[in-house]
Design brief:
The complex is a heterodimer. Chain A is an all-beta fold. Helices cover 0% and strands 49% of the residues of chain A. Chain A contains no helices and 11 strands. The radius of gyration of chain A is 13 Å and the shape is globular. Chain A starts with a strand and ends with a strand. Chain B is mainly β. Helix content of chain B is 0%, strand content 50%. In chain B, strand 4 and strand 5 form a beta hairpin. The chains are: A mainly beta, B mainly beta. At the A-B interface, strand 5 and strand 10 of A face strand 5 and strand 10 of B.
Chain lengths: 108, 116
């Protein structure tokens, strides 16, 4: 089973600033990586798949990069609605698909 | 648009059973593989099971294999998860989701608590 590790656990950012979230896989997952956003009391929402493809309706300020074992989610200019928990997930070696522990993006 | 509504969660004693259901709407249910994913309190997301679009094939996490059964009724646009021999470690919020690799859409979840 592939272990996904996200860092940092919590990221404090001011609105309008750039946020950079990291995700590392215990072995290569090629580009088979997704990012999800979850706000309190809501279901997770798909943001990015294929490491860098935005899902339908996702604003351009969200971008994903990386391949192999190192991945990054960048939010170019944080909006108030972006404060949430973000999860990465690999779907290269499945089942099972596996998730990272999450990064909470909070207001600085 | 896609909508998934889970039901059936609740409090059950260790060793007991519970059946979760998920009502799907807003998309052609029979075209999609479906899965259950859970999140235990204070823990991360864990894939539990998935079923192919026809229902002919099913897969389970090792932690639930032999105890949980996933099924679907494409005529009724519904997905079920029969959970037997429940353990304290099965306590979690259970999400019905569309997809089996990347997850295209998530329901709001239904809470299962296993406690004496």
């Amino acid at each position: 089973e592939i272990v996904m590790t996200q860092s940092p656990a919590t990221l404090s950012v001011s609105p309008g600033e750039r946020a950079t979230l990291s995700c590392r896989a215990s072995q290569s997952v090629s580009s088979n990586l997704a990012w999800y956003q979850q706000k309190p009391g809501q279901a997770p929402r798909l943001l990015i798949y294929g490491a860098s493809t935005r899902a339908t309706g996702i604003p351009a300020r969200f971008s994903g990069s990386g391949s192999g074992t190192e991945f990054t989610l960048t939010i170019s200019s944080l909006q108030s609605e972006d404060f949430a928990v973000y999860y990465c997930q690999q779907y290269n070696n499945w089942p099972p698909v596996t998730f990272g522990g999450g990064t909470k993006v909070e207001t600085k | 648009q896609m909508q998934l509504v889970e039901s059936g969660g609740g409090l059950v004693k260790p060793g007991g059973s519970l059946r979760l259901s998920c009502a799907a709407s807003g998309f052609t249910f029979s075209d999609y593989y479906m899965s259950w994913i859970r999140r235990a309190p204070g823990k991360g997301l864990e894939w539990v099971s998935y079923i192919t679009n026809s229902g002919s094939n099913t897969y389970y996490a090792d932690s639930v294999k032999g105890r949980f059964t996933i099924s679907r009724d494409n005529a009724k646009n519904s997905l079920d998860l029969q959970m037997n021999s429940l353990r304290a470690e099965d306590t979690a919020l259970y999400y019905c989701v569309v997809g089996y690799r990347k997850i295209d859409f998530w329901g709001q979840g239904t809470l299962v608590t296993v406690s004496s």
